[in-house]
Amino acid sequence: MVDFTVALADPDTGETHQVDIDGQDANRFMGRELGDEVDGSAVGLDGFTLELAGGSDDAGRPLREDVRGAALKSILLEGGVGFKPERDGERKRVTVRGREISDAVRQLNAKIVDAGDGDVAELLGEESED
User: CA-based angle 82:54:33, to the nearest 5?
Assistant: First the structure.
């Protein structure tokens, strides 16, 4: 069975919430690509719209928006997601995963693009630390 941890960014408050999903809710993400918008009910936020922004697979390799499909690909990078050069002109061959969400993905990054009614932390069942 497929399960994900979704790191959900709330741009209004600047907070990030982690939500574990599995089963039917996780299947709503299968076959989608980075940049796609998804209904927030999959993570317990009815009336919200989420945009898939990134993620990583079971080995920690990042998803890259410029690589098609869900397979692993070894690409030469000058910087960006998956490689941070330490000096000018440095390049490196790095194994990354494509932009399509598959059963190998373990963590997804998403941000709220259309807010619904209610506070995100309360809807997710998180307690405040006040």
Answer: 120
